[in-house]
Amino acid sequence: MEQPRELLQQFAHGDLEAFExxxxxxxxxxxxxxxxxxxxxxxxxxxxxxxxWRIHRAHARFxxxxxxxxxxxxxxxxxxxxYLKSARVETGLPEDLPxxxxxxxxxxxxxxxxxxxxxxxxxxxxxVAAMLALIDEEPYAEIADALGISIGAVKxxxxxxVRLLRNHLKQLGVEP
Amino acid sequence: xNQHHDEKIRExxxxxxxxxxxxxxxxxxxxxxxxxxxxxAVVPWFDWAxxxxxxxxxxxxxxTIPLLLYHL
Lengths: 176, 72
What we know:
The structure holds 2 protein chains of 2 kinds.
Chain A: H1 5-12, H2 16-38, H3 41-57, H4 68-87, H5 109-120, H6 124-135, H7 140-147, H8 151-171
Chain B: H1 2-16, H2 29-41, H3 45-60, H4 64-71
């Protein structure tokens, strides 16, 4: 969604109305991106507000000639990563998620639990890259843009994540 | 062999995590506004330090008070 340059310029100059307008337009998109990383709707809402707080503070550094959506997504990714690093959370499905939402009830619940635990042991940077690339199947270029790294670096992170995950799974008794 | 294993891990992951394509259920602007107001009410430490410095100067050198008032 392209924004009028005038609106972006007003935002860059610290105009609160312009910020509100951008917030209302992009809050859903930012939330949708963050929830893919943290897998928890409540935390994703808090991190969406935190992301826009960072956006608001950094308004003077925004270049109105560039895409606001891409800039916001990068800040959202960093915010979510900071959360994962500080909370040392194990990313998994919330317990109260309805069973119907599970993608394949064919594999045992116990195996799913162990896979989620092994995945949660990955370093946050690798976890985010693997989550977006392997589970949500986001294009590598988009992940690279959101993480502020090259496509090659994303592939490397995914590769390292898979290797580490395989080791963790073996330790947990799951032979992939 | 490795590629085959990687594919199996990818499959395991996809079976263990549901893709999240959720939409935001409510407007977060009121929450954002509260956050903005909270922070705008907080006076930065630097301002307090500056105020303390001015107060100290006025206390130590009272002759500067008329000068300060003149410039205000």
